[in-house]
Amino acid sequence: MTTEHRRIYIAGPMTGREDFNFPAFHTAADRFRKAGWRVANPAENFGGRTDLARETYLRADLAMLAKCDAIAMLPGWRRSRGALLEYVIAHELRLDVYDAETQALIETRRVTLRLVDRAPQESVLDEAKRITSSDRQSDYGHPRDDFARTAIMWMGILGGKLREGEFIEPSDIPLCMIAVKLARQAHKHKRDNLVDIAGYARTAAMVAGDE
Q: Which residue, among 169, 78, 163, 63, has the nearest Cα to 117 in the 3D structure?
């Protein structure tokens, strides 16, 4: 089958990247179109909007991927939860895998399929940064605002136990939450505890204006 009759999907990291990494997606799409491919570029979905729910993009992206003959992986895809999912699905669909920058064929659909258990797991710090940069901010707002609301509620509960003239401040909230996560981690190791500790440390810096 010649390339002009084949369709390729561009996959790579978006969350936490400047401009959602759209420039890299568009550059790769142009490169493959010039080579004769029909291109499915998720960065072109919804007119380039970035304010929709993550699952909305995921449903549209996976529908596009299912109609393709190949997938092209952008740099950093191994550290992207979404791109890793697309890679696994591409394997299950027996798609050819290309390097999105060099256009070199990495793996063919004839390669025996295997679980992607050797792909590096996202680090605790990377996961914490991703979550505090996008997922939770979109759900709860900026940590300064979220913790300000929490501080008001905690004052209602704990106000009678504070010294006169003392208040719970937004900056106290992440420190207390770190203490909760440390207590849980001391009882039993759980990776999510470490991610949350790192995440609350970052939000403490955000409240202080260091980020």
A: 78
pLDDT digits (tens, 9 = 90+) for 151-174: 899 988 888 888 888 899 999 999
**Strand-strand pairing, 70-73 and 38-40:** unpaired
Over residues 39-51, the mean pLDDT reads 93
C-beta of residue 183 within 8 angstroms of C-beta of residue 120? no
Q: Rounded CA gap, 26 and 21, in Å?
A: 9
**Can you tell me the distance from the alpha carbon of 66 to that of 90, in angstroms, rounded to the nearest whole number?**
8
CB atoms within 10 A of CB 100: 23
Q: What is the mean pLDDT of the chain?
A: 86
Q: Is the pLDDT of residue 1 over 90?
A: no
For 132-141, write each residue's pLDDT tens digit: 776 556 667 7
**What residue ranges define each of the domains in the chain, with the CATH number in brackets?**
3-107 (3.40.50.450), 124-207 (no CATH)
Helices 172-187 & 143-158 angle (0-180, nearest 10): 80
- Give the CA-trace dihedral at 134, 140, 141, 143, to 10 degrees: -90
Nearest to 110 by CA among 155, 67, 70: 70
Coil, strand or helix at 59 = helix
How far is CA 15 from each of CA 24, 118, 202, rounded to the nearest angstrom?
Answer: 13, 22, 17
pTM of the model: 0.54
Which residue, among 2, 134, 10, has the nearest Cα to 70 in the 3D structure? 10
Torsion of CA 26, 29, 30, 33, to 10 degrees: -160
